[in-house]
Amino acid sequence: MKKTLKELAALVEGVILGETDFENIEITGVTGIEDAGPGNITFAVPPHLDKAARSPAAAVVVPDTVYQYPKPAIRVANPRVAFVTLLNLFTPQPDVKREIHPSAILGTGVSIGGNVAVMAYAVIEDGVTIGNNTVIYPHTYIGHNSRIGGDTLIYPGVTIRENCQVGNRVIIHSGAAIGSDGFGFVTFNGQHIKVPQVGNVIIEDEVEIGANATIDRATTSSTIVRQGTKIDNLVHLAHNVEIGENCFLVAQTGIAGSAKVGSNVTFAGQTGSAGHLTIGDNCVFAARSAPISDVPANSFYAGFPARPHGEWLRAEGAIGKLPELIKKIRNLEQRLAKLENKEEK
Amino acid sequence: MKKTLKELAALVEGVILGETDFENIEITGVTGIEDAGPGNITFAVPPHLDKAARSPAAAVVVPDTVYQYPKPAIRVANPRVAFVTLLNLFTPQPDVKREIHPSAILGTGVSIGGNVAVMAYAVIEDGVTIGNNTVIYPHTYIGHNSRIGGDTLIYPGVTIRENCQVGNRVIIHSGAAIGSDGFGFVTFNGQHIKVPQVGNVIIEDEVEIGANATIDRATTSSTIVRQGTKIDNLVHLAHNVEIGENCFLVAQTGIAGSAKVGSNVTFAGQTGSAGHLTIGDNCVFAARSAPISDVPANSFYAGFPARPHGEWLRAEGAIGKLPELIKKIRNLEQRLAKLENKEEK
Amino acid sequence: MKKTLKELAALVEGVILGETDFENIEITGVTGIEDAGPGNITFAVPPHLDKAARSPAAAVVVPDTVYQYPKPAIRVANPRVAFVTLLNLFTPQPDVKREIHPSAILGTGVSIGGNVAVMAYAVIEDGVTIGNNTVIYPHTYIGHNSRIGGDTLIYPGVTIRENCQVGNRVIIHSGAAIGSDGFGFVTFNGQHIKVPQVGNVIIEDEVEIGANATIDRATTSSTIVRQGTKIDNLVHLAHNVEIGENCFLVAQTGIAGSAKVGSNVTFAGQTGSAGHLTIGDNCVFAARSAPISDVPANSFYAGFPARPHGEWLRAEGAIGKLPELIKKIRNLEQRLAKLENKEEK
């Protein structure tokens, strides 16, 4: 694909900065700054503007606060959003045949919308509903009476167990397990008796779920992931968890049973949460932290057990000084003993 | 389904508490307290008795230590066990066709018991044995000469490699990998030479294994999970690990190679264990803890490296006081210097 | 299989230690010390020489620094390497039919080398290339235009998305997801807009990837795992990560986006790394540690945030002494107050 800078500027609703003839520059691809070669367009925001200027890129998308730039540039309100638009433009869409592959197995009472792809060896059980434009890759299993929305993308090897609901414009990556049994047992005379997990999982619209993530069905009622939340690889959500809207759950995070998480919450990588607690909106949990009790809205927490980030920083700093403190105390003890000896004399 | 309170009381071997005509109350479902609606029965133990009483539930299963209750109730010795019985009663069993699906591929010398389901696109290699009443979901792979017991349930996308043994009444959730190679290498002239992993995995009766969990085969001999142990999602057991009976391994726990774990041990969420160590019976490891040396039976450990829970609590408490301690030491230093100056004069 | 000690000594280029007639001893299997029975050969290096001598093993492979041994032995330069050779000798190779199974689905323009096995229900999309002698197990998915090298082994249920490259002599265990989308979003007006992940994954020669591990494709350019690196189960590599040659990434490790890791680096179990940082060659990260900034070559780090191991040990030791320190400070305060009182009088 080949586009002029003028065409790209129009697409991202930006303004070309520099010479008039820049608008005829031909762009053949879009990349990050580090991988940019001639013919590429990239984007930069402070403090990366200089780095992008020194790159071999043909042009750079910059914020509209930039009025001078040593390279052909397009000024836009939000360079990151423009970058996404350009990536979409230059990314050839994988060629998905809109058909039910003859090897896909569909149960009875399956309802499939228009323009759907169900690829080879997918198994769709009785009573499943699939919305328009949805694409289901090979080796996927969808259990009885589950409902999948429209414009949804399910990659290979995904399992969605019975009676679950997946919304519209959802993306589920390879190997994710949705609706597996929650981990519930009653211990009686030393034996662990399984508590039937008869609830389901509800995944709302625009959710993304990472590769090999696991989301357990509720004991009764539903495990819920609300609209716009993005879940990374190998994340675990236990039974009856509720995650609010537009959250980020970064890789290898685990949320224990019945935790209720507000909207716009970020769990950074390898974090966790104890079960049966409530986390307010807009909280951020730094990497590897994990709360063990309720967290008020708008908190920035770190450490384990998670506490306010400033407090954690002070404690971590103090731990670094500990060997020195031990020396100081020894010194104090010696000096004090000396004084006490003098007193006694 | 509709049952009278009288019928339910008989089933759970309990006694109805309250008015005589309570026995005709009709129950249409069973749920947790929070989700209870009219027509539902739920259960409650202290301190949740009041909460259940205030819920819209039609009736509540309570401990037999309760003699008065503001709502229709059934008194039983163990409300949790009764709850499991009721859940099983009201849960429609998924309709599993007992057949070898024509698309399932069976090798030579495969022995399959009675009343078994092998679903679509399962691949069962030569010499595999499967016991009576076992259900194998689609896209499952069972390697050469592995033996699967009776009344066992294997969900979609599970891989069980060659020569492994899975017991009776075992449940394996979607995407679990049993019998993958242990992580064993000999480093020689800077290259890592693979040590063939020629052992296997033995899963005893009544074990449950979570979604996308991984249990590696032994280098030689066996990786073993003993009877009644329950393993949650994304748990990792390395080669030659042995887990005793009736343990809990909660989500995202990882046990390193050759660790020997006793019976009735609980590893809470996101815990771990170093390799080549021995952990006694009845130990409990708090969330995110991990022992790095042997642990005696009946220990309650926390932190990393894991230590007795009380010790961990004291250390954590002390860390919280550190910034204050630093101030105190500074203050002591100043006061002491003042005294010393006076002395010198 | 039955081999004389003489034959085995020749195979591992070792020398029999002890009586001349030891060379006729018949060996029927090879095991670790703990599982050794009569007829077995095992290996031992200090401090395990005595343990092996007391085992029921028929013979032991020992280092050539050993000149006397109470049991038939073979002296070799490297007993571990000899052990691998013996394991390979005594391990029956699984019988893999070299054929494209009729149920495997191959797209157009697929190029397959000689002596390849593509097993049941594998799905190979258009334009894929597979080298000689490669074995692909059932339920594997290989996306458009991906290239798989020769002598490579891909176990069941693996997904390799489009445009990825996998080298020669690579092993990928069950359920691994290669080339899933990186976790990249631009947040705009509170919504998380997906950044298309249009790069790929490059797995070089002799890499091993564990069960249910996930390696995300780059946003643009490539996520790279270089030659000879070994990755354990449930490890996560984010987009644009680069891992050098001959590294070890032990189970449940997670490397965040764009981290660049040198060669011969070890990440022990349950470690992690922050994104966008550089880790030098030959670093070792102790179990559960995670760096949050650049790490120079040859570092041995522990803890979180990861710091030099000695420093971590001192801090951990000091934390253990904290309750005692608090007492000491209280004592110092009392004694000092007493002295100050005297002064005032």
From TrEMBL, chains A, B, C:
Pathways per UniProt: Bacterial outer membrane biogenesis; LPS lipid A biosynthesis
Question: Residues in domain UDP-3-O-[3-hydroxymyristoyl] glucosamine N-acyltransferase non-repeat region?
Answer: 24-89
Instruction: Kindly identify the residues recorded as the active site.
Output: H239
Name the Enzyme Commission number(s) assigned to this protein. Answer: 2.3.1.191
- Coiled coil residues, start to end: 315-342
Which reaction is recorded as catalysed by this protein?
a UDP-3-O-[(3R)-3-hydroxyacyl]-alpha-D-glucosamine + a (3R)-hydroxyacyl-[ACP] = a UDP-2-N,3-O-bis[(3R)-3-hydroxyacyl]-alpha-D-glucosamine + holo-[ACP] + H(+)
* UniProt keyword Acyltransferase, yes or no: yes
Sorted alphabetically, the Gene Ontology cellular component annotations on this record are: membrane
Q: Which CDD domains match?
A: LbH_LpxD (cd03352)
Query: Is RNA-binding one of the keywords UniProt gives this record?
Result: no
> Annotated Gene Ontology MF terms?
N-acyltransferase activity; UDP-3-O-[(3R)-3-hydroxyacyl]-glucosamine N-acyltransferase activity
One of the protein's GO biological processes: lipid A biosynthetic process
Subunit:
Homotrimer.
Task: Give the protein family.
Answer: Belongs to the transferase hexapeptide repeat family. LpxD subfamily.
Q: Could you identify this protein by its name?
A: UDP-3-O-acylglucosamine N-acyltransferase
For this protein's source organism, the top of the classification is: Bacteria, Bacillati, Bacillota, Negativicutes, Selenomonadales
Gene name as annotated: lpxD
